[in-house]
Amino acid sequence: MAFKTSLDARAGAAAALLSWYDRHRRDLPWRALPGEAADPYKVWLSEIMLQQTTVAAVKPYFLGFLERWPNVCRLAQASGEEVMRAWAGLGYYSRARNLHACAKIIAARFGGEFPDTEAALRRLPGIGAYTAAAIAAIAFGRRAVAIDGNAERVLARLFSIDTPLPAAKSEIVAKAAAMVPVERPGDFAQAMMDLGAVICGPKHPSCGICPLLKFCRGHALGCPESLPRKAPHRERPLRQGAVFFVRRRDGAVLVRTRPPTGLLGGTTEIPGTGWEIRFDAASAARQAPIEASYRKLDTSISHAFTHFALRLDIYVAEVSNRRRAPKGYRFVLGCGLESEAFSSVMRKIIEAVRQNA
Q1: How far apart are CA 315 and CA 65, in angstroms?
Q2: How far is the C-alpha of 216 from the C-alpha of 198, rounded, in Å?
Q3: DSSP conformation class of 279
Q4: Which terminal Cβ of the chain has fewer Cβ within 10 Å, N or C?
Q5: CATH number reported for the structural domain that contains residue 45 in this entry
Q6: Whether residue 242 sits in one domain with residue 217
Q7: Does this model's pTM top 0.90?
Q8: Choosing from 47, 118, 269, 340, which is the catalytic residue?
Protein backbone atom coordinates (compact mmCIF):
# COMPACT_ATOMS: atom_id res chain seq x y z
CA MET A 1 0.00 0.00 0.00
CA ALA A 2 1.42 3.37 -0.98
CA PHE A 3 2.07 5.69 1.91
CA LYS A 4 -0.08 8.81 1.86
CA THR A 5 1.81 12.06 2.39
CA SER A 6 -0.67 14.78 1.43
CA LEU A 7 -2.06 17.25 3.93
CA ASP A 8 -5.46 15.68 3.38
CA ALA A 9 -4.02 12.30 4.35
CA ARG A 10 -2.45 13.78 7.47
CA ALA A 11 -5.78 15.34 8.41
CA GLY A 12 -7.37 11.95 7.81
CA ALA A 13 -4.81 10.31 10.08
CA ALA A 14 -5.53 12.84 12.82
CA ALA A 15 -9.27 12.26 12.46
CA ALA A 16 -8.79 8.48 12.61
CA LEU A 17 -6.65 8.83 15.70
CA LEU A 18 -9.21 11.02 17.50
CA SER A 19 -12.02 8.65 16.58
CA TRP A 20 -10.03 5.77 18.08
CA TYR A 21 -9.27 7.86 21.18
CA ASP A 22 -12.96 8.58 21.75
CA ARG A 23 -13.56 4.83 22.01
CA HIS A 24 -10.41 3.63 23.73
CA ARG A 25 -8.97 6.49 25.78
CA ARG A 26 -7.26 5.46 29.03
CA ASP A 27 -8.92 6.32 32.32
CA LEU A 28 -6.23 8.30 34.17
CA PRO A 29 -6.75 10.24 37.42
CA TRP A 30 -5.41 13.50 35.97
CA ARG A 31 -7.38 13.29 32.74
CA ALA A 32 -10.67 15.19 32.32
CA LEU A 33 -13.74 13.15 31.38
CA PRO A 34 -15.16 13.56 27.86
CA GLY A 35 -16.85 16.93 27.58
CA GLU A 36 -15.20 18.30 30.74
CA ALA A 37 -12.59 21.05 30.82
CA ALA A 38 -9.15 19.90 31.93
CA ASP A 39 -7.85 21.17 35.27
CA PRO A 40 -4.52 22.96 34.57
CA TYR A 41 -3.25 22.06 38.06
CA LYS A 42 -3.82 18.34 37.47
CA VAL A 43 -2.32 18.50 33.99
CA TRP A 44 0.78 20.33 35.23
CA LEU A 45 1.25 18.09 38.28
CA SER A 46 0.91 14.90 36.24
CA GLU A 47 3.20 16.09 33.46
CA ILE A 48 5.96 16.98 35.92
CA MET A 49 5.62 13.61 37.65
CA LEU A 50 5.52 11.68 34.37
CA GLN A 51 8.88 13.02 33.19
CA GLN A 52 11.04 9.89 32.82
CA THR A 53 8.60 7.95 35.02
CA THR A 54 5.89 5.41 34.20
CA VAL A 55 2.16 5.96 34.58
CA ALA A 56 1.94 3.08 37.06
CA ALA A 57 4.61 4.62 39.30
CA VAL A 58 3.07 8.10 39.13
CA LYS A 59 -0.56 7.25 39.95
CA PRO A 60 -0.20 6.81 43.75
CA TYR A 61 2.06 9.86 44.06
CA PHE A 62 -0.34 12.00 42.03
CA LEU A 63 -3.32 10.95 44.14
CA GLY A 64 -1.33 11.52 47.33
CA PHE A 65 -0.33 15.03 46.28
CA LEU A 66 -3.88 15.83 45.19
CA GLU A 67 -5.34 14.66 48.49
CA ARG A 68 -2.83 16.67 50.49
CA TRP A 69 -2.63 19.74 48.24
CA PRO A 70 -5.81 19.94 46.10
CA ASN A 71 -4.76 23.12 44.29
CA VAL A 72 -1.62 25.03 43.42
CA CYS A 73 -2.04 27.62 46.18
CA ARG A 74 -2.19 24.92 48.84
CA LEU A 75 0.94 23.34 47.37
CA ALA A 76 2.67 26.72 47.43
CA GLN A 77 1.98 27.00 51.16
CA ALA A 78 3.69 23.68 51.94
CA SER A 79 7.25 23.60 53.20
CA GLY A 80 10.01 22.31 50.99
CA GLU A 81 10.60 19.46 53.43
CA GLU A 82 6.95 18.36 53.18
CA VAL A 83 7.08 18.32 49.40
CA MET A 84 10.32 16.34 49.34
CA ARG A 85 8.93 13.77 51.79
CA ALA A 86 5.79 13.34 49.67
CA TRP A 87 7.96 12.96 46.54
CA ALA A 88 10.45 10.52 48.11
CA GLY A 89 10.92 7.40 45.98
CA LEU A 90 9.70 8.95 42.73
CA GLY A 91 13.22 9.96 41.70
CA TYR A 92 14.73 12.88 39.76
CA TYR A 93 14.38 15.13 42.79
CA SER A 94 15.04 18.38 40.97
CA ARG A 95 11.50 17.92 39.66
CA ALA A 96 10.12 18.22 43.19
CA ARG A 97 12.18 21.33 43.94
CA ASN A 98 11.08 22.96 40.69
CA LEU A 99 7.47 21.88 41.28
CA HIS A 100 7.40 23.69 44.60
CA ALA A 101 9.16 26.77 43.23
CA CYS A 102 6.73 26.87 40.31
CA ALA A 103 3.71 26.59 42.62
CA LYS A 104 4.96 29.54 44.66
CA ILE A 105 5.35 31.69 41.55
CA ILE A 106 1.92 30.79 40.19
CA ALA A 107 0.31 31.51 43.57
CA ALA A 108 2.15 34.79 44.17
CA ARG A 109 2.50 36.22 40.68
CA PHE A 110 -0.51 34.80 38.85
CA GLY A 111 -3.06 34.55 41.65
CA GLY A 112 -3.18 30.77 41.41
CA GLU A 113 -4.03 30.79 37.69
CA PHE A 114 -1.68 29.03 35.27
CA PRO A 115 -0.44 30.96 32.21
CA ASP A 116 -2.13 29.63 29.07
CA THR A 117 0.60 29.99 26.43
CA GLU A 118 3.71 27.94 25.74
CA ALA A 119 5.96 30.98 25.96
CA ALA A 120 4.69 32.01 29.40
CA LEU A 121 4.76 28.45 30.70
CA ARG A 122 8.37 27.99 29.53
CA ARG A 123 9.44 30.80 31.84
CA LEU A 124 8.36 28.82 34.92
CA PRO A 125 10.74 26.51 36.85
CA GLY A 126 10.77 22.90 35.72
CA ILE A 127 8.69 23.46 32.59
CA GLY A 128 10.55 22.68 29.39
CA ALA A 129 9.43 22.63 25.78
CA TYR A 130 7.45 19.38 25.92
CA THR A 131 5.76 20.10 29.26
CA ALA A 132 4.78 23.62 28.17
CA ALA A 133 3.28 22.25 24.96
CA ALA A 134 1.40 19.52 26.81
CA ILE A 135 -0.11 21.94 29.33
CA ALA A 136 -0.97 24.48 26.64
CA ALA A 137 -2.64 21.85 24.46
CA ILE A 138 -4.40 19.73 27.08
CA ALA A 139 -5.38 22.38 29.63
CA PHE A 140 -5.97 25.36 27.32
CA GLY A 141 -6.70 23.98 23.86
CA ARG A 142 -3.67 25.61 22.24
CA ARG A 143 -2.46 24.11 18.96
CA ALA A 144 0.83 23.04 20.49
CA VAL A 145 3.05 20.10 19.53
CA ALA A 146 3.36 17.88 22.62
CA ILE A 147 5.53 14.86 21.83
CA ASP A 148 6.37 12.49 24.68
CA GLY A 149 8.31 9.23 24.32
CA ASN A 150 5.23 7.27 23.26
CA ALA A 151 4.20 9.82 20.63
CA GLU A 152 7.81 10.01 19.45
CA ARG A 153 7.74 6.29 18.72
CA VAL A 154 4.41 6.48 16.88
CA LEU A 155 5.57 9.34 14.66
CA ALA A 156 8.96 7.80 13.88
CA ARG A 157 7.14 4.70 12.62
CA LEU A 158 4.33 6.60 10.93
CA PHE A 159 6.78 8.59 8.80
CA SER A 160 9.57 5.96 8.77
CA ILE A 161 12.15 8.35 10.17
CA ASP A 162 15.56 6.65 10.00
CA THR A 163 17.59 9.31 11.76
CA PRO A 164 18.61 7.98 15.21
CA LEU A 165 17.34 9.63 18.35
CA PRO A 166 17.94 12.15 19.78
CA ALA A 167 18.96 13.76 16.46
CA ALA A 168 15.57 12.83 14.98
CA LYS A 169 13.57 14.89 17.48
CA SER A 170 13.39 18.04 15.36
CA GLU A 171 12.18 16.06 12.33
CA ILE A 172 9.57 14.27 14.44
CA VAL A 173 8.28 17.54 15.87
CA ALA A 174 8.06 19.06 12.37
CA LYS A 175 6.03 16.09 11.12
CA ALA A 176 3.74 16.26 14.14
CA ALA A 177 3.19 20.00 13.71
CA ALA A 178 1.59 19.35 10.34
CA MET A 179 -0.83 16.86 11.91
CA VAL A 180 -2.04 18.68 15.03
CA PRO A 181 -5.67 19.69 14.38
CA VAL A 182 -7.04 23.13 15.14
CA GLU A 183 -9.89 21.49 17.04
CA ARG A 184 -9.09 19.21 19.99
CA PRO A 185 -5.29 19.60 20.02
CA GLY A 186 -5.21 18.40 23.63
CA ASP A 187 -7.10 15.22 22.80
CA PHE A 188 -4.78 14.70 19.83
CA ALA A 189 -1.74 14.90 22.11
CA GLN A 190 -3.27 12.46 24.60
CA ALA A 191 -4.39 10.15 21.80
CA MET A 192 -0.80 9.96 20.52
CA MET A 193 0.38 9.13 24.02
CA ASP A 194 -2.26 6.43 24.45
CA LEU A 195 -1.61 4.89 21.04
CA GLY A 196 2.07 4.55 21.83
CA ALA A 197 1.33 3.12 25.27
CA VAL A 198 -1.28 0.49 24.36
CA ILE A 199 -0.87 -0.36 20.64
CA CYS A 200 2.38 1.00 19.17
CA GLY A 201 4.61 -0.35 21.93
CA PRO A 202 8.40 -0.65 21.75
CA LYS A 203 8.21 -4.37 20.93
CA HIS A 204 5.57 -6.31 19.01
CA PRO A 205 3.30 -3.39 18.07
CA SER A 206 -0.32 -4.43 17.47
CA CYS A 207 -0.39 -3.08 13.93
CA GLY A 208 -3.51 -5.02 12.97
CA ILE A 209 -5.74 -2.95 15.27
CA CYS A 210 -3.94 0.38 14.87
CA PRO A 211 -6.13 3.25 13.63
CA LEU A 212 -3.14 4.63 11.70
CA LEU A 213 -2.31 1.38 9.90
CA LYS A 214 -3.16 2.59 6.39
CA PHE A 215 -1.14 5.77 6.93
CA CYS A 216 1.96 4.10 8.44
CA ARG A 217 5.07 4.06 6.27
CA GLY A 218 6.99 1.98 8.80
CA HIS A 219 4.40 -0.79 8.56
CA ALA A 220 4.26 -0.53 4.77
CA LEU A 221 8.02 -1.03 4.64
CA GLY A 222 7.83 -3.94 7.09
CA CYS A 223 10.10 -2.40 9.69
CA PRO A 224 7.98 -0.80 12.47
CA GLU A 225 9.80 -2.57 15.32
CA SER A 226 13.16 -1.19 14.16
CA LEU A 227 11.94 2.38 14.67
CA PRO A 228 12.75 4.74 16.18
CA ARG A 229 16.44 4.12 15.81
CA LYS A 230 18.63 5.11 18.73
CA ALA A 231 22.23 6.17 18.89
CA PRO A 232 24.45 3.66 20.75
CA HIS A 233 24.48 4.16 24.51
CA ARG A 234 27.75 5.08 26.12
CA GLU A 235 28.80 2.76 28.90
CA ARG A 236 28.12 4.39 32.26
CA PRO A 237 31.18 4.77 34.51
CA LEU A 238 31.09 3.01 37.88
CA ARG A 239 31.38 5.11 41.01
CA GLN A 240 31.88 3.57 44.44
CA GLY A 241 31.59 4.64 48.03
CA ALA A 242 30.51 3.60 51.50
CA VAL A 243 27.64 4.46 53.85
CA PHE A 244 27.54 4.30 57.64
CA PHE A 245 24.34 3.01 59.19
CA VAL A 246 24.61 4.19 62.79
CA ARG A 247 21.80 3.06 65.07
CA ARG A 248 21.28 3.87 68.72
CA ARG A 249 20.02 1.14 71.05
CA ASP A 250 16.59 2.79 71.07
CA GLY A 251 16.38 2.25 67.31
CA ALA A 252 17.10 5.83 66.21
CA VAL A 253 19.19 6.08 63.02
CA LEU A 254 21.71 8.77 62.12
CA VAL A 255 20.76 10.75 59.00
CA ARG A 256 21.41 14.07 57.35
CA THR A 257 19.80 16.20 54.63
CA ARG A 258 21.68 16.66 51.38
CA PRO A 259 22.31 20.21 50.11
CA PRO A 260 19.26 21.71 48.38
CA THR A 261 20.81 21.65 44.91
CA GLY A 262 22.65 19.01 42.95
CA LEU A 263 22.07 15.26 42.67
CA LEU A 264 19.33 14.11 45.09
CA GLY A 265 19.27 17.67 46.46
CA GLY A 266 17.13 18.17 49.54
CA THR A 267 16.62 14.47 50.22
CA THR A 268 17.45 12.62 53.42
CA GLU A 269 20.42 10.27 53.34
CA ILE A 270 22.32 7.76 55.39
CA PRO A 271 25.71 9.48 55.79
CA GLY A 272 28.63 8.21 53.81
CA THR A 273 31.69 8.95 51.74
CA GLY A 274 31.79 10.66 48.38
CA TRP A 275 30.98 8.61 45.28
CA GLU A 276 34.19 8.23 43.36
CA ILE A 277 35.51 6.38 40.31
CA ARG A 278 38.78 5.67 42.12
CA PHE A 279 37.39 4.80 45.54
CA ASP A 280 39.82 3.78 48.27
CA ALA A 281 37.82 1.20 50.20
CA ALA A 282 40.64 0.73 52.71
CA SER A 283 40.24 4.28 53.99
CA ALA A 284 36.42 4.33 54.02
CA ALA A 285 36.01 3.65 57.74
CA ARG A 286 38.12 6.71 58.58
CA GLN A 287 35.39 8.89 57.03
CA ALA A 288 32.65 7.69 59.37
CA PRO A 289 30.61 10.52 60.94
CA ILE A 290 30.76 9.01 64.45
CA GLU A 291 33.54 7.06 66.09
CA ALA A 292 32.21 3.58 66.79
CA SER A 293 32.88 -0.10 66.21
CA TYR A 294 31.75 -0.66 62.62
CA ARG A 295 30.99 -3.94 60.92
CA LYS A 296 31.03 -4.14 57.14
CA LEU A 297 28.10 -6.08 55.70
CA ASP A 298 28.88 -8.90 53.29
CA THR A 299 26.46 -7.37 50.80
CA SER A 300 26.70 -4.08 48.93
CA ILE A 301 23.99 -2.24 47.00
CA SER A 302 24.01 -1.16 43.37
CA HIS A 303 22.05 1.62 41.76
CA ALA A 304 21.90 3.13 38.27
CA PHE A 305 21.72 6.87 37.73
CA THR A 306 21.35 8.48 34.31
CA HIS A 307 25.05 9.15 33.81
CA PHE A 308 26.77 6.64 36.10
CA ALA A 309 26.37 3.39 37.99
CA LEU A 310 26.90 3.27 41.74
CA ARG A 311 28.00 0.60 44.18
CA LEU A 312 28.05 1.25 47.91
CA ASP A 313 29.57 -0.76 50.77
CA ILE A 314 27.58 -0.67 54.00
CA TYR A 315 29.08 -0.28 57.47
CA VAL A 316 26.86 -0.79 60.50
CA ALA A 317 27.43 0.32 64.10
CA GLU A 318 25.37 0.51 67.27
CA VAL A 319 25.88 3.32 69.79
CA SER A 320 24.40 4.19 73.16
CA ASN A 321 21.23 6.21 73.61
CA ARG A 322 23.33 9.03 75.06
CA ARG A 323 25.24 9.54 71.81
CA ARG A 324 24.45 12.91 70.25
CA ALA A 325 24.40 13.58 66.54
CA PRO A 326 27.30 15.66 65.15
CA LYS A 327 26.52 19.08 63.75
CA GLY A 328 24.58 18.77 60.48
CA TYR A 329 23.26 15.32 61.36
CA ARG A 330 20.27 14.10 63.37
CA PHE A 331 18.94 10.89 64.87
CA VAL A 332 15.53 9.74 63.63
CA LEU A 333 13.58 7.08 65.52
CA GLY A 334 12.95 3.93 63.50
CA CYS A 335 9.21 4.60 63.37
CA GLY A 336 9.92 7.96 61.75
CA LEU A 337 12.12 6.67 58.94
CA GLU A 338 9.18 6.04 56.62
CA SER A 339 8.24 9.73 56.65
CA GLU A 340 11.74 10.88 55.72
CA ALA A 341 12.50 11.98 52.15
CA PHE A 342 14.77 9.06 51.33
CA SER A 343 15.70 8.51 47.69
CA SER A 344 15.46 5.05 46.13
CA VAL A 345 19.15 4.36 46.66
CA MET A 346 18.85 5.20 50.38
CA ARG A 347 15.81 2.95 50.71
CA LYS A 348 17.88 0.14 49.20
CA ILE A 349 20.48 0.68 51.91
CA ILE A 350 17.91 0.59 54.71
CA GLU A 351 16.39 -2.60 53.30
CA ALA A 352 19.82 -4.22 52.96
CA VAL A 353 20.58 -3.46 56.62
CA ARG A 354 17.20 -4.87 57.71
CA GLN A 355 17.86 -8.11 55.86
CA ASN A 356 21.54 -8.57 56.63
CA ALA A 357 22.48 -6.75 59.82
Answers
A1: 35
A2: 17
A3: -
A4: N
A5: 1.10.340.30
A6: no
A7: no
A8: 47
